[in-house]
Amino acid sequence: MLDVMPTVPTQALIGGEWLNAESGRRFDVRDPATGNVIASVSDCGEVETLAAIAAADAALAAWSAEPASGRARILRRWADQMIERADELAWTLTRENGKPLAEARGEVLYGASYLHWFSEEATRVYGDVIPAPGSDRRIIVTKSPVGVCAAITPWNFPNAMLIRKAAAALAAGCTLVAKPAAETPLSALLAARIGMEAGLPAGVFNVVPGTDAAEIGRVLTSSDIVRKLSFTGSTGVGRKLIAQCAPTVKRLSMELGGNAPFIVFDDADLDAALDGLMASKFRNAGQTCVCANRVYVQDGVIGEFAERLAKRVATLNVGPGDRSGTEIGPLISEAAFAKVERMVSDALARGGRVLTGGAKHPAGELFYQPTVIDGVTADMDVMRDEIFGPVAPVAGFATEAEAIQMANETEYGLAAYVYTRDLGRAWRVGDALAHGMVGINEGVLSSPAAPFGGVKQSGFGREGSRYGLDDYLDVKYMLMGGLSA
Ligand code: SIN
After folding, report:
1. Distance 446 CA to ligand 1 centre (A)
2. Which atom of ligand 1 lies closest to the CA of 289?
3. I need a surface site. Which of 167, 305, 326, 476 has the fewest CB within 10 A?
4. Residue 2: pLDDT over 90
5. What pLDDT, in 10s, does the model give residues 19-41?
6. Which of 157, 386, 417 for mutating ligand 1's site (highest number of atoms within 8 Å of CB)?
7. What CA–CA distance (Å, rounded) separates 78 from 225?
8. If you take atom 6 of ligand 1, which residue's CA is the nearest one?
């Protein structure tokens, strides 16, 4: 592992060149573990975003005309070089996001896995020949890249969320303008530099860092050149972006908020359920869209389960991500910390009981103790909203029907988890859950081979898998006539 901050680009990448914002403005990136400034980055706005869109447009014809095998070769090289430089990328990610180094390294490898996956899928963009209503004709279906795309990516997975969008877009033959979160632009810029070194042609992949997300978002969404926007972030911001894209009728992929139920039935393997919950809930200090938000445990085992959960959670090692053995890092910001504090206070004021944690951790300003609360009810904020922190609220239920009803009682529908050894129940509950992804006896769902995405107000569109590639392809139907002799 490295022990110093690697040299990371701090300018925008536009048309293959590293550029400062024309305004000369820069912004500070801070380490959430210490509050220290770790870099000063070009603060881009309208001018740079328009330039990046123009660069992506100029690069589109050649990139989309490149044979899929050629695009695949570059994506594969990008992945291989990211893996070779995983320590450097992980160190940068931990510094700006706070997650433990081992998790950061895992994220980099996860990001690279999308490049590998889509490099292979790039060569399998099949069309169709369909029998037409008359024998003198054929219906031909071809697929072509959507065009210039935009990606707005979050701070919780600053490498993987960007790379999974870029991998699919570029594999399909699209070009991309990416706006990384202002909290974590360095991972994006370093990944972009590695991509350029791997052979990405100028303009195919552009990155505009900046603090004025509304301004950059406005330019991306109002551009007629940009034909698709892929966004990962909150449902509130997603709604605005959808509205902004309406006048230019863009393709959209929206990976928005979640409120994942984690259901444990009496017949479950409790050891497996505990392992799954620890992995799902406490990854990235609970700051993931798919992490277990509401834990429902059937009445026969809730006492034992909650007690064993609290014991395990109490042993979690909290500290800076670069310290060996750390399992829980800081939250990303003061606002995130205040939200977690507020939600826990709300739960306690309404009758919840802390089994472990429940307060600030002495490791620093943004560290919150891993927490388990039982006796929670549906009206509490921790059950209604995404917590985005290391807090597990546990509630009981009596019947299968009740578990399904409670799990679906949310406007969100991203991920859900079910633990049971009854095969019939696994299918019944899996089918009945109104969520885009369901883990059955599994607490971590992520894979480049699987379609990641939600339903209801968790969004639409899929990332990863062949469905993820389809989201960057337009279908064209041609009717071939005059075939009769
Ligand atoms: C997320 O929760 O935002 C992404 C998590 C993942 O891809 O595993």
Report:
1. 7
2. 2
3. 476
4. no
5. 999 999 999 999 999 999 999 99
6. 157
7. 26
8. 446
Ligand 1 pocket test: pick from 235, 290, 387, 437 the residue with the most ligand atoms within 8 Å of its Cβ: 290
How close is the Cα of 464 to the center of ligand 1, in Å?
11
Alpha-carbon distance of 313 to 236, in angstroms, equals 31
Q: Residue 73's closest CA among 28, 116, 130, 127?
A: 116
Evaluate if pTM is beyond 0.90. yes
Structure tokens at 61: 């014809």
Contact (CB, 8 A) for 421 and 269: yes
Report d(CA 242, CA 251) in Å as an integer.
10
How far, in Å, from the CA of 103 to the mean position of ligand 1?
13
The tokens of 130 are what? 């369909």
Q: Name every protein residue with a CB atom under 6 angstroms from any ligand 1 atom.
A: 156-157, 288-290, 446, 452
**How many residues are present in the chain?**
485
Q: What is the CATH number of domain 260-447?
A: 3.40.309.10
Q: Convert 117-144 into a string of H (helix), E (strand) and C (coil).
A: HHHHHHHHCCCEEEECCCCCCEEEEEEE
Residue ID of nearest Cα to ligand 1 atom 3: 289
CB-neighbour burial class of residue 142 (10 A; exposed 0-12, middle 13-18, buried 19+): middle
Ligand 1 pocket test: which of 114, 156, 291 has the largest number of ligand atoms within 8 Å of its C-beta? 156
- Provide, rounded to the nearest whole percent, the portion of the chain with pLDDT above 90: 97
- Letter string b/e over residues 371-401, b meaning 16 or more CB atoms within 10 A of that residue's CB: bbbbbbeeebbbbbbbbbbbbbbbbbbeebe
Distance 156 CA to ligand 1 centre (A): 8
- 8 A C-beta contact, residue 136 and residue 125: no
DSSP state of 222: H
Q: Whose CA is nearest to atom 7 of ligand 1?
A: 446
Q: What SS3 class is residue 445?
A: coil
Tell me, in angstroms, the distance from the centre of ligand 1 to residue 157's CA: 7
Residue ranges covered by each domain of the chain? 12-256+458-476, 260-447
d(CA 465, CA 448): 6
CATH superfamily of 12-256+458-476: Aldehyde Dehydrogenase; Chain A, domain 1 (3.40.605.10)
Per-residue pLDDT reduced to its tens digit, 107-156: 999 999 999 999 999 999 999 999 899 889 999 999 999 999 999 999 99
Integer angstrom CA distances of residue 442 from 33, 74, 105, 268, 371: 31, 34, 22, 12, 22
Catalytic positions, written as ranges: 255, 289
Give every strand in the sheet of 353-356, ordered side by side: 353-356, 371-374, 391-397, 292-298, 260-264, 415-419, 437-440
Is the Cβ–Cβ distance between 176 and 170 less than 8 Å? yes
